[in-house]
């Protein structure tokens, strides 16, 4: 049972290069997220998706793009990498429930192991 | 808008001592509150969550947290620390019908022998 898988786990880029991080989940979750983790700042939400074909901006979306063409995959792209994007990136997924009023995120996120990106 | 403040970026306790990690939240809607743990070089995993049921929530590994609306707090406790509890702990807040979790800056727990 793989859960949430991120590739690659490590990458070094030069300023201005582009790259894509891939996140795949095998739990049939509706929601998927990309966070970045920096020392002393916790996790900050970059982009998220509430279903196939939909994406939305989080707290720190600038410099990143995302796509969710298939329910199980959520891609994070950097078109022109900058040193400020050096970070550890985490993908997460979660399921929702609907008690008859509004769909609710249970809040239990399942995380991948992270992708460490260094931009020189 | 929602936010979380974790008091103390580092907490050090002796093995067998009480663990207390502090979390205060701000939310314009009834909050859902969570504690996650991150071991070195791993992703986060859920410790426990509060979703408007019992105010005292028990989680894995002997941890528990109490929701106090009047104090807007959700502190994490464990009666007796174990060496294996050394990790970083994150408090997070969400709200009903919200798709997003907002995380605090984290507290690193050090356990001394």
Summed up, what is this model?
Chain A has 120 residues and is mainly β. In chain A, 0% of the residues lie in helices and 56% in strands. In chain A, 34% of the residues are buried.
Commentary on this structure:
The complex is a heterodimer of chains A (120) and B (113). Helix content of chain A is 0%, strand content 56%. Chain A contains no helices and 13 strands. In chain A, β10 and β11 form a beta hairpin. The model of chain A has no long low-confidence stretch (mean pLDDT 90). In chain A, the strands form 3 sheets. In chain A, strands 2, 4, 5, 6, 9, 12 and 13 form a 7-stranded mixed β-sheet that branches. In chain A, strands 1-3-8-7 form a 4-stranded antiparallel β-sheet, with no helix packed on it. Chain A is globular and about 40 Å long. Chain A is mainly beta and 120 residues long. By secondary structure, chain B is mostly beta strands. Helix content of chain B is 0%, strand content 57%. In chain B, the strands form 2 sheets. In chain B, strands 2, 4, 5, 9, 10 and 11 form a 6-stranded mixed β-sheet that branches. Chain B has a 5-stranded antiparallel β-sheet with strand order 1-3-8-7-6, with no helix packed on it. In chain B, a hairpin with a 5-residue loop joins β6 (56-58) and β7 (64-68). Classes of the chains: A mainly beta (120), B mainly beta (113). The interface between A and B is medium-sized, with 28 and 27 residues.
